[in-house]
Amino acid sequence: MRNYIDFEKPIEEIERKIDELKQLKGYGDKKVIEEIEVLEKEAKERSRQIIENLTPWQQCLLARHPDRPYTLDYIKAITEEFIELHGDRRFSDDPAIVGGLCRIDGIPAMLIGHQKGRGTKERIQRNFGQPHPEGYRKALRIMKLAERFHIPIVTLIDTPGAFPGVGSEERGQSEAIATNLMEMSLLKTPIVSIVIGEGGSGGALALTVADRLFMLQYSIYSVISPEGCAAILLKNDKPLTQEDFAKAANSLKLTAQHLQNYGITDDIIEEPQGGAHRNVEETARNIKRFILSSFEELHGIDPFVLVEKRYKKLRAIGVFLE
User: Fold this and answer.
1) Cα angle: 5, vertex 54, 2; to 5 degrees
2) Nearest 10 degrees: CA dihedral of 178, 181, 187, 191?
3) pLDDT digits over 279-300, tens only?
4) Are strands 97-104 and 107-114 parallel, antiparallel or unpaired?
5) Is 145 exposed, middle or buried (0-12, 13-18, 19+ CB in 10 A)?
6) Cβ atoms within 10 A of the Cβ of 79, count?
7) Contact predicate 60/249, CB 8 Å
8) Quick check: helix, strand or coil at residue 47?
9) Cα separations (Å) of 171 from 94, 132, 134, 168, 182?
């Protein structure tokens, strides 16, 4: 059953009516078919109007849509022969990060990504896509393996952030993230990162030190969530409201368009009208095209030159005044 978020309610009413008409015994009747066609056109137009006028906060909600495709959905759609690898060889396996060897259009690659999980049971198992230190160490182990065999790396980013629990801190959460940042900057193999949903804080950054960084059209990428930002900067005696979260989202400049304008991301991957959850296959094809194009651009570059270019790309991000 399809889920709807608040601003999709006008579309929900129309699509429910379409589903009801399709269940009628007289579905083949010409009048019923014509009515369905009219309603489908109306739903499409309503969707276009809503999507074209999304606020940054609404884009946050869309990036977190419960029906939005996750890493495993894209792995199924764009890879062949995926073999998942487990464990960090130090503590345990972290289900919040999945990764392994695969082929993309016949090209060997290592694909790693956050996995939030579907349904309450799986979401709890995968900790809602919030990795522990062993998740980042597993990811780095897989990336080091890719470097050894000269295989390109693809990372898919979708996390609200690294897990801030006591156990994670005891096992070195900040050290694990910092190590990933350092090691990824030095890996002598191409790295392509794509933000497919939420790119939250260091939890996302630990997998996005890359030669190419792309964002899906309605994904977000930020140092902190709007809720966290509002809790720190807008706290007062009253409970925080949606208006507070919207204000924080506006200030954070976290949309794909903002980040491209600031030169942080290389390009925006277009989503189907209404968002990636409306047509997973089309979204996966768009992602695959960007991955293959990046592989072609980065193939054959001397490994030491690749690392130097990555360093200069990262150093060029941001502006400062003296």
Assistant:
1) 25
2) 150
3) 999 999 999 999 999 999 999 9
4) antiparallel
5) middle
6) 21
7) yes
8) helix
9) 13, 9, 8, 5, 19
> What are the tokens at 287?
């992602």
Contacts of 90 (CB under 8 A, 6+ apart): 134, 137
* Joined tokens for residue 99: 């990764």
Its sign, for the CA torsion 78, 94, 190, 318, is: positive
pLDDT of 94-117, one tens digit each?
999 999 999 999 999 999 999 999
Residue 212: the pLDDT is 97
Rounded mean pLDDT of 207-233? 94
pTM: 0.91
Q: Is the pLDDT of residue 24 over 90?
A: no
Residue 14 to residue 74: CA distance in whole angstroms: 29
CA-angle at 303, arms to 300 and 306, nearest 5°: 85
Domain parsing of the chain, residue ranges: 6-53, 60-315
Tokens 């309450």 found at? 120
Q: What is the 3-state secondary structure (H, E, C) of 106-166?
A: CEEEEEEEECCCCHHHHHHHCHHHCCCHHHHHHHHHHHHHHHHCCCCEEEEEEECCCCCCH
Kindly report the CATH class assigned to 60-315: alpha beta
Distance CA 322, CA 312 (A): 21
Strand pairing report for 153-159 and 191-200? parallel
